[in-house]
């Protein structure tokens, strides 16, 4: 909130500030109206009459639209907030050490020369050690399953071939690990399916949201059986 001392003395500047404030209020009212419509549609899809309820896919779409609208409101508020205020000076904090269970990749940086100006050799008397947190981006891969066919040249009837391995989703593209990743990202990390599709598209993986939803529906019986098994 601005103080009286922060206001300019120029009348034209005051008028410009007033107009800008009114524009921000109009934008906020428009965002609130849009959110109210999305909330009403979401309630109708979730709690309406059976004849008016939407299918699960429409329910997920309404939820994702609501999350997108909320993110847009936050982004708009940050854009409308004045940025000319001085930022507080960051305090020096003791960041502590990184978790010990993380693997360490050490790099040793030696001086360019270990020869003393007097002509003798330098001896190691200590070292400075610093740690930084690094990350290896998630990498998708394709599991290629080959099942060779064998037959006898003398006996022409019958071909020997190993049976196809069982899949969690019949004729589905994602593996069990991919389905687990999607489930954890959606329900534990609250990452909507459309955002996961955007992340996968950066690696040229065209995974439509309807495919993701079918994977979720197909994985529900297996996840329920797994939770029951874990309780035993």
TrEMBL record:
Residues annotated as domain Transposase IS66 central: 172-210
InterPro entries: Transposase-related (IPR052344), Transposase_IS66_central (IPR004291), Transposase_TnpC_homeodom (IPR024463), Znf_dom_IS66 (IPR024474)
Residue stretches spanning the membrane: none
Domain Transposase TnpC homeodomain: 34-106
Region of interest called Disordered, as start-end residue ranges on this chain: 75-98
Pfam families assigned: DDE_Tnp_IS66, LZ_Tnp_IS66, zf-IS66
Residues of the Transposase IS66 zinc-finger binding domain: 115-153
Protein's name in the database: Transposase
């Amino acid at each position: 909130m601005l103080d009286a001392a922060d206001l300019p003395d120029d009348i034209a500047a005051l008028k410009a500030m007033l107009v800008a404030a009114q524009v921000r209020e109009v934008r906020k009212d428009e965002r609130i109206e849009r959110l109210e419509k999305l909330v009403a549609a979401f309630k109708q899809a979730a709690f309406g009459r059976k004849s008016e309820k939407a299918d699960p896919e429409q329910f997920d779409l309404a939820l994702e639209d609501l999350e997108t609208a909320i993110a847009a409101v936050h982004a708009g508020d940050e854009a409308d907030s004045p940025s000319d205020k001085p930022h507080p000076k960051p305090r020096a904090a003791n960041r502590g050490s990184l978790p010990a269970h993380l693997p360490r990749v050490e790099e040793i940086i030696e001086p360019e020369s270990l020869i003393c100006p007097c002509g003798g050799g330098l001896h190691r008397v200590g070292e400075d050690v610093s740690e930084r947190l690094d990350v290896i981006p998630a990498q998708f891969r394709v599991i290629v399953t080959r099942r060779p066919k064998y037959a006898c040249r003398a006996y022409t009837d019958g071909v020997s071939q190993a049976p196809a391995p069982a899949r969690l989703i019949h004729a589905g593209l994602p593996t069990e690990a991919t389905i687990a990743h999607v489930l954890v990202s959606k329900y534990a990390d609250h990452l909507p399916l459309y955002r996961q599709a955007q992340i996968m598209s950066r690696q040229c993986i065209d995974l439509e949201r309807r495919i993701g939803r079918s994977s979720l529906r197909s994985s529900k019986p297996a996840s329920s059986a797994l939770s029951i098994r874990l309780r035993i």
